Amino acid sequence: MSYDTSNIFARILRGEIPNDTVAENEHALAFRDIRPQAPVHVLVIPKGAYVSYDDFAANASDAEIVGFHRLVAQVAQSEGLSLAEGSQGFRAITNAGAHGVQEVPHFHLHLLGGRPLGRMLQAG
């Protein structure tokens, strides 16, 4: 999967499509999912053009990697999901490629919580 500069997240980053921003730093943006699957469902995306988590981990600068992960922690805390703040927990999901059912070819992490989420995958 190659990076498509017209994907919806690239367009959000360019300001062409509005979003419900939760938090932002120099390297990443967090915003509410438009089709939430849990009471809290926030997407965290790097501002760089990375297709998947492995692409990001292999090719992003140290500053981008740290900035991204620090924003995830900030959002977990601000949204009441952080275990350190007494939350019951959350799930962080990233999908890659066809088998991972990735819908947008821009690396993104789903941060979900606010209720029991059940098993991650069905046995089978």
From TrEMBL:
Query: In chain numbering, where does the motif Histidine triad motif fall?
Result: 106-110
- Does the UniProt entry include the keyword Hydrolase? yes
Gene3D superfamilies given in the database record: HIT-like
Q: Which residues form the HIT domain?
A: 8-122
What GO molecular functions are on record for this protein? hydrolase activity
Q: Tell me which stretches of the chain form a coiled coil.
A: none
Q: What does UniProt list as catalytic? A: H108
Per UniProt, the keywords (alphabetical) are: Hydrolase
Protein's UniProt keywords contain Chaperone: no
Name of the featured protein: Diadenosine tetraphosphate (Ap4A) hydrolase
Species of origin? Paracoccus chinensis
